[in-house]
Amino acid sequence: MLNKYFTYGYSLTAIALCVFGGFNPCCAQTIVEDAPQEIVESPAESAVAAGKETFLNPDSATVAACIEGVQIRPQDEVWVVNARNAHCVCTLASIRVRRFFAGCWQNSSLKELTAEHLQNPETETVLYIHGNQNDRQLSRSRGMVVYGSVIQCGIQPPIRFVIFQWKSEREISSVLRDYLVKSKRAIEVGKTLALMLREFQNRDITVVAYSLGTQVVLSALYQPFMSQEDEGKGYRLALIAPALDCDFVSNVKCHPSHGNQIDHTQVFFNKCDRALKLAEWVCRKKYGQRCDYFDDLVCKGVIPLGCVETFQVAAEVGKKHSLERYCKSAKIRAAIRRMIPSVATAGDPANESPDTLVLSAEPQPVFGESNPDSVDAPATDDDSAVAE
Q1: Residue 373 counted as domain residue
Q2: Are residues 119 and 238 in the same domain?
Q3: Which of 3-17, 120-134, 201-215 is least confident?
Q4: Do residues 200 and 345 share a domain?
Q5: 382 located within any domain
Q6: Is pLDDT at 286 greater than 70 in this prediction?
C-alpha cells in the first residue's frame, strides 16, 4: 500500500514539474552538456548562476554569459572548432564548428567564423590549440582557462577566442607509448589546421599552443602552400611548454620551409617540467644525442619563426606539467597580451616588461638541462609527467 501511494505521489510530482515548471528533458540535456562539471560555494558560483540566467533569458543585457565557470565579456566571441576526426580524414569536411551565442552553444560553420574574422577586424582573433590527454570536454574547459587567465584578464579590446580541438585523450596505459602515438597524430592534424587557416584569407591571427599543440601548429605552417610569399601580416605564435615529435624536426631539416608566414614567436620554456624532460629523453634515446628543437628550427631556418623571444618560467611554474600553473605565470600573461596588436596599442596596464631573451646566433636550449649527456629515462608512472 505504501509503495502504491509513493508511486502515485512521485508521478504527480513529475507531472507538476513538466506542466508548471516548464521542464523539458531535451533542453536539460543541452544545459548539462555545456555546464561546469561541479559548482562549489565560491565567488565563481555567482558567475555560473549568471550564465544559466542568460541561457533562460537571452534578452537580459545586465547578465554576463558563463562557460565552464568563466565569465564571457559582452564584446568577446567564443568559438569551438572540433577537428577530432582530422587525423583520419585531412579535409575541412571533417571539422565541426560551434559558437557560444545568446547564452548557449549553437551550431555554426567555418564559413561563418572566417566571415566574422574578415568583416570585423577590430575584434582580434586568438586561436588556442591544446596538448595531449584532452577529451572533448576537457579541451574546452582548459581552453576557457586560457581565455579567463591569459587572454581576458586585463584586456579591454574585443577578442574572438577560438578553441581548436583534436583527438588526444589517453588511449594507451603506458604514458610513454601514448605520447609517441599522439606526437605522430599531431603532425597529421596539423595538415587539417593548415587548410583551416587558409580559409581565413589573412594571417592576422594570434596562435596560442600548449605542449603538443606546438607540434600541431608547426606541422600546419610547414605545409608547402602555407609558406607562399604574402605581403600581409604574419601569424603571431605563443608556444607554451612546447613539445615536438623528434622525427618531424629531423625530417624537415632536409627540406626547410621558406616564406614569411610568421611575424613574431614567443617560446615559454621550463627546464624543470617533467613532461618536457621525457620528450627530450625520447629524442636523445632515438638519435643518441641532445636535440635542441628550436635551436635547429630557428638557427638553421627549417621553419622561419620571425622575431623569436624565449622566456624561462621554471621559477613560477615548477616541475608539474599543468596548464593551470602556466596560466598563472605573470610572465606568460604579460607577454601574450603584449603580442596582441590591439592590446599593445591600447596600452594594457598588465603588460609588464618580463625578462626576455631575443634569440640570436646563440639561442637558449629548449629544455635547459644541466647534464645533456645523461640518458636516464625520467619516471613515467605519474600522469603529470606526460606532454599534455
Answers
A1: no
A2: yes
A3: 3-17
A4: yes
A5: no
A6: yes
The parent domain of residue 18 ranges over 1-27
User: How far is 241 from 213, CA to CA, in rounded Å?
Assistant: 10
219: CATH: 3.40.50
The total number of structural domains that make up the chain: 2
| DSSP structure string for 92-155 | GGG-EEEEEETTEEEE--HHHHHHHHHH-TTSEEEEEE--SS--HHHHHHHHHHHIIIIIITT-
| 151 and 7 co-located in one domain | no
| 55/101 Cα distance (integer angstroms) | 9
Which phi-psi region, left, alpha or beta, contains residue 329 (left: φ > 0; alpha: ψ -120 to 50)?
A: beta
Backbone conformation region of residue 364, classed left if phi is above 0, alpha if psi is from -120 to 50, else beta: beta
Compute the distance between CA of residue 202 and CA of residue 304 in angstroms, rounded to an integer: 18
pTM of model > 0.85: no
Q: At which residue does the C-alpha cell 581565455 appear?
A: 147
Q: Are residues 93 and 22 in the same domain?
A: no
205-243: buried (b, 16+ CB within 10 Å) or exposed (e) per residue? bbbbbbbbbbbbbbbbbbbeebbeeeeeebbbbbbbbbb
In-domain check, residue 57? no
Distance from C-alpha of 191 to C-alpha of 207, rounded to nearest angstrom: 16
E strand segments, the chain:
65-67, 70-72, 77-82, 96-101, 104-107, 124-129, 159-165, 205-210, 235-240, 262-269, 307-312, 357-358
Q: What is the pLDDT of residues 346-364, one digit of tens each?
A: 654 444 444 444 443 333 3
Condensed to tens digits (0 to 9), the pLDDT of residues 56-99 reads: 333 333 345 788 888 899 999 999 999 998 777 778 988 999 99
**CB atoms near residue 201 (< 10 Å):** 11
CB contact at 8 A, 208 and 147: no
CA distance 365 to 294: 8
Structural domain includes residue 220: yes
Pair (94, 166) in one structural domain:
yes
CA–CA distance from 6 to each of 122, 168, 182 (Å)? 61, 47, 53
CA–CA distance, 51 with 38 (Å, rounded to integer): 14
Residues 6+ apart with CB under 8 A from 363: 292, 294, 295, 298, 299, 308, 310
